């Protein structure tokens, strides 16, 4: 897995080296040299500064001609696209559709066509304009031939060779890709090159991943098709940016494809716009094209003047190339040759090869840094940068600084810059392994080793530099507190295992040295056992025994003994990864042994998992050497059983999980005591949430949290930078609900309860319980003939058993009521009866929530009760809940209940016949409504007599609450009540003018209301404005004067007092006579001036008249 980080580096080329009309069409990086191919010439560039880890500025390097041979082409109009080669022969693709064979000794084999004899009608001119492993420019596309014969008129624009599969791929200018078989002895035997298959006719480029046995084909439609070479060149999947809102109209056709050095990912460059990196499973790991949206029906319109400068490769990608370690991706822009963009990438420790696995911490590493992800108890996401001085005098260093940023996940995201003095001399990082407890990290570059103490944030290095330079690490493992190094000895070309205690890296502390049989291909460790696999398929299992205490004050030594050797003859490829599988159950021959009572964790592992490069996952019996294929199309897997002794390990019951290539989903495996030792359960069948997002790649599993950790790509933009910064972002996806469901399926109810109790404090616990019930219920109702009314007898009970077990499990937790009703809201109401037959009676669940005062949860049950028990019962429950929510001032919830009650009341009124209503068992609900109405109604309006009892009951409750609020002058609550329930406040005020809304005394009312509505707060001022508008609409003069005074609305008061000067004098005297009203003296002055001016104008008009 590869993920971009940081800002793209711009590497300028010397000006004037290429004509402005030309471009770079091919890149090749080897060490500190960069080969640049333009249409007319080759250029070799080197770093301008010696000692640089990566070139920041390039200049021309010296290059001399070693050999020049004239190819005997007969014609004059032939061009060469590219060539492929093996150890003895190279094949050239010609523009007339022929291939030309040349040996490395300079022997010319001549031209030939696939499946025909050689021809001499050839040319000696080179193709003037190529894309370097791409489409020939200037060659018109021909129509796809309908027959199966290979057209000799179409130019060959690209050749690709897969030596492992003995396949040659020939791409023609008309878009036809021909798959040809090659003689096992090599390309020299051209007569054996036969066409086997013809692929789609819109291909423009292709690239082969030999280790993965996958062919990537770029098309004119902007898509990349992946073909499985191990399965008769069958289509595996198609990836493109179409689902992100970009069609080929904007990206253009695929221009180039480049696989990473380990063939686990590939980069795609488009001719018109952008670059992206994909995993083999189809996960989009990185993209320079800014995301618009998923599943867009049409591509967005691109405005080149809007943010275009922030997008790299906006004008298209010409050529791309990975460096030899896969840490950087070099790209050139279409129609540009003045600079090269370098994107930095981090790689994930994928639990493959000779580096150890990580569980507590998930680790990615770049050329000079580490990125760790781990669970935290808080919801803070911390980003820590470590920077150390170049010169050092001691072998232990503290960190310098860190900063924190809050995100929505409870993961810790740490970036460490590898100790500078070490990485400067031993660049780049080669291997990374985390200790079992996650407290230490081991990092190895080209030489030596350094350790990082995560808890104390300190580095430990070799004190003796000469010892450091003698270590050429080819693999890392952790054996408890011991770090195991697979060291390559250059002088003897042999390999050995070195065992160092983590507290001291020095030759004097070396615990053991073990010479290996050869170069290890795969290594693994479990407790005191180490597995080493050699080519072609030889397995050695060693047992480690430590004598003495592993402390700085004592002397300890270690013995390594071989306990098992296997040499397996198989036609399959060598494993890419192997992991011990601890025995979770004793073998049959061990049942009667004396060791049955011993702890299974102390046993020597007798099985191991094998993952091959083609995605095949198999189980190997280390006792008898038998290998059983389990599944294919696997990209990653994690052995979870026996990996943690902590009680918080939530996945101990699981044997392992794997991440598939076909569906980007997780599959879980459990041990079984039956004939099949392991049973597979596919999460995708019942848990579609575990089908990973196409932008999130799983890094690993955190057993103590029960989540799968993934990472996705994000971009941040800055006005001071030309390009965006690429930021890997961790994502967490819980699997707890799946583990619980599987335990219930296996009748391990007590284990499921224990697992749930361990997870009860996790932030995602409620969500997991909801998904557990939802997935079980969805699977239950999705079965054929799942209608409960048509099923009876033992079969019906059996179908409900898993649903009932899930409900019984969730009942142990207070989240049960929310979980059940949330699942009901997400499913069809037709199936609610089936759900609540297992979960409990809906009215009982409602009553429990009501008594606990969980009113919001209780409100969610109202619709369920209406469906299952009828509208009358739901009306009764809703009226009770309405009164309770009003008492608790939950006015938004009260408004929802009011709308439900009015709607439900209309449905009751539209009942078929009166006889049906009277005979209904829900008549009790109507009687209850009637009594409730008579008891609560104030009967102050004759209009109530004409209303239905349902509407009258609701209005009675609302008016009673409004009267209560108005009597207590709780005006803020009154405003919230009116807005939340849409209560008709105008009608209420008109009827209560001389009732609860009456103000007996102006001064007392102003003082009381001023205390209730603190005008210093914005919300209270808004509430007062709202009430003032309502009072004005009913011309409630007493309230208008009080509220306008509080708001100091002089214009409102002026309109009242200019026509009633007697009222003005009383108002002015009241405000002046009370010391508490001093803040209104300015208001009085303003009103006095306005009224005086009005009186003066009146006198003037009178004198004139």
From TrEMBL:
Keywords: Membrane
Domain of life: Eukaryota
Localization per Swiss-Prot or TrEMBL: Membrane
Protein name per the record: RIC1 C-terminal alpha solenoid region domain-containing protein
Organism: Brassica napus (Rape)
Keyword Oxidoreductase included in the entry's annotation: no
UniProt biased composition (Basic and acidic residues): 583-592
Ribosomal protein listed as a keyword: no
A Pfam short name: Beta-prop_RIC1_2nd
Region (Disordered): 583-602
Domain RIC1 C-terminal alpha solenoid region residues, every copy: 737-911
């Amino acid at each position: 897995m590869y993920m971009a980080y940081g800002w793209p580096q711009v590497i300028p080329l010397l000006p004037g080296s290429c004509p402005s009309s030309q471009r770079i069409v091919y890149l090749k990086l080897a060490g500190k040299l960069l080969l640049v191919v333009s249409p007319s010439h080759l250029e070799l560039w080197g770093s301008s500064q010696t000692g640089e880890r990566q070139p920041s500025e390039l200049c021309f390097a010296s290059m001399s001609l070693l050999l020049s041979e004239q190819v005997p082409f007969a014609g004059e109009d032939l061009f060469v696209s590219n060539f492929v080669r093996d150890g003895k022969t190279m094949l050239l693709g010609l523009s007339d559709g022929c291939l030309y064979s040349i040996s490395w000794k300079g022997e010319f084999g001549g031209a030939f066509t696939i499946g025909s004899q050689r021809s001499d009608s050839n040319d000696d001119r080179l193709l003037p304009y190529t894309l370097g492993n791409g489409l020939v420019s200037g060659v018109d596309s021909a129509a796809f031939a309908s027959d199966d014969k290979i057209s000799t008129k179409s130019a060959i624009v690209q050749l690709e060779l897969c030596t492992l599969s003995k396949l040659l791929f020939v791409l023609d200018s008309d878009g036809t890709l021909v798959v040809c078989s090659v003689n096992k002895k090599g390309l020299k035997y051209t007569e054996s090159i036969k066409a086997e298959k013809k692929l789609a006719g819109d291909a423009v480029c292709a690239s082969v991943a030999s280790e993965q046995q996958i062919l990537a084909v770029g098309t004119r439609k902007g898509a990349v098709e992946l073909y499985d070479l191990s399965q008769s060149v069958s289509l595996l999947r198609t990836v493109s940016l179409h689902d992100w809102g970009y069609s080929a109209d904007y990206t253009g056709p695929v221009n180039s494809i480049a696989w990473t050095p380990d063939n686990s990912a590939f980069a795609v460059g488009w001719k018109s716009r952008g670059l992206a990196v994909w995993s083999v499973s189809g996960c989009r790991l990185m993209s320079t094209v800014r995301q618009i949206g998923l599943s867009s029906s049409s591509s967005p319109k691109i405005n080149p003047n809007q943010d275009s400068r922030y997008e790299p490769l906006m004008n298209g990608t010409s050529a791309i190339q990975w460096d030899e370690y896969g840490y950087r991706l070099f790209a050139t822009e279409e129609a540009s040759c003045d600079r090269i963009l370098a994107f930095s990438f981090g790689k994930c420790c994928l639990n493959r090869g000779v580096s150890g696995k990580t569980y507590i911490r998930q680790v990615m590493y770049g050329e000079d840094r580490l990125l760790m992800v781990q669970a935290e108890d808080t919801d803070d996401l911390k980003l820590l940068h470590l920077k150390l001085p170049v010169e050092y005098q001691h072998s232990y260093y503290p960190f310098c600084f860190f900063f924190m940023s809050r995100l929505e996940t409870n993961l810790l995201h740490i970036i460490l810059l590898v100790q500078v003095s070490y990485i400067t001399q031993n660049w780049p990082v080669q291997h990374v392994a985390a200790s079992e407890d996650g407290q230490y990290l081991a990092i190895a570059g080209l030489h030596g080793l350094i350790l990082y103490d995560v808890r104390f944030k300190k580095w430990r290095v070799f004190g003796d530099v000469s010892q450091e330079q003698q270590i050429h690490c080819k693999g890392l493992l952790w054996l408890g507190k011991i770090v195991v190094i697979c060291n390559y000895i250059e002088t003897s070309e042999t390999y050995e295992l070195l065992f160092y205690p983590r507290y001291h890296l020095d030759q004097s502390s070396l615990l053991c040295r073990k010479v290996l049989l050869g170069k290890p291909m795969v290594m693994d460790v479990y407790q005191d056992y180490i597995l080493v696999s050699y080519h072609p398929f030889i397995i050695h299992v060693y047992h480690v025994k430590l004598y003495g205490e592993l402390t700085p004050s004592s002397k300890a030594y270690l013995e390594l003994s071989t306990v098992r050797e296997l040499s397996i003859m198989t036609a399959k490829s060598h494993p890419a990864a192997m992991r011990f599988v601890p025995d979770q159950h004793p073998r049959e021959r061990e049942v009667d042994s004396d060791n049955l009572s011993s702890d299974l964790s102390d046993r020597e592992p007798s099985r191991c998992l094998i993952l091959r490069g083609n995605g095949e996952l198999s189980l190997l019996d280390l006792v008898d050497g038998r290998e059983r294929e389990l599944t294919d199309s696997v990209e990653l897997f994690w052995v979870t059983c026996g990996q943690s002794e902590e009680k918080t390990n939530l996945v101990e019951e699981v044997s392992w999980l794997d991440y598939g290539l076909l569906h980007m989903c997780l599959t879980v495996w459990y041990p079984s005591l039956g004939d099949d030792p392991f049973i597979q359960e596919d999460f995708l069948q019942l848990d579609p949430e575990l089908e990973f997002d196409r932008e999130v790649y799983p890094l690993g599993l955190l057993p103590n949290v029960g989540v799968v950790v993934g990472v996705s790509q994000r971009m941040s933009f800055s006005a001071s930078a030309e390009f965006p910064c690429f930021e890997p972002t961790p994502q967490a996806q819980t699997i707890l609900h799946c583990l619980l469901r599987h335990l219930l399926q296996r009748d391990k109810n007590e284990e499921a309860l224990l697992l749930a109790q361990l997870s009860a404090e996790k932030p995602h616990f409620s969500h997991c319980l909801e998904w557990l019930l939802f997935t079980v219920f969805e699977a239950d109702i999705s079965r054929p003939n799942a209608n409960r009314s048509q099923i009876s007898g033992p079969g019906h009970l059996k179908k409900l058993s898993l649903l009932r077990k899930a409900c019984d499990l969730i009942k142990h937790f207070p989240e049960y009521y929310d979980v059940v009703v949330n699942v009901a809201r997400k499913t069809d109401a037709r199936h609610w009866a089936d759900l609540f037959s297992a979960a409990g009676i809906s009215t009982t669940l409602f009553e429990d929530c009501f008594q606990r005062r969980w009113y919001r949860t209780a409100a969610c049950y109202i619709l369920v009760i209406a469906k299952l028990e009828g509208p009358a019962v739901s009306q009764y429950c809703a009226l009770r809940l309405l009164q309770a929510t009003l008492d608790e001032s939950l006015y938004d919830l009260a408004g929802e209940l009011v709308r439900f009650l009015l709607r439900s009341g209309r449905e009751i009124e539209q009942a078929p016949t009166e006889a049906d209503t009277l005979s209904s068992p829900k008549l009790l609900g109507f009687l209850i409504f009637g009594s409730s109405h008579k008891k609560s109604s104030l009967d102050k309006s004759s209009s109530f007599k004409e209303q239905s009892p349902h509407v009258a009951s609701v209005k009675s409750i609302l008016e009673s609450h409004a009267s209560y609020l108005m009597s207590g002058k709780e005006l803020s609550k009154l405003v919230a009540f009116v807005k939340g329930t849409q209560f008709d406040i105008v009608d209420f005020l008109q009827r209560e003018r001389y009732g609860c809304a009456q103000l007996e005394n102006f001064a007392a009312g102003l003082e009381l209301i001023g205390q209730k509505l603190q005008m210093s707060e914005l919300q209270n001022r808004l509430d007062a404005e709202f009430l003032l508008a309502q009072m004005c609409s009913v011309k409630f003069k007493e309230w208008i004067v009080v509220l306008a005074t509080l708001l100091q609305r002089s214009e409102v008061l002026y309109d009242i007092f200019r026509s009633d000067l007697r009222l003005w004098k009383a108002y002015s005297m009241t405000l002046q006579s009370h010391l508490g009203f001093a803040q209104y003296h300015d208001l009085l002055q303003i009103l006095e001036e306005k009224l005086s001016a009005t009186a003066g104008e009146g006198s003037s008009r009178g004198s004139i008249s």
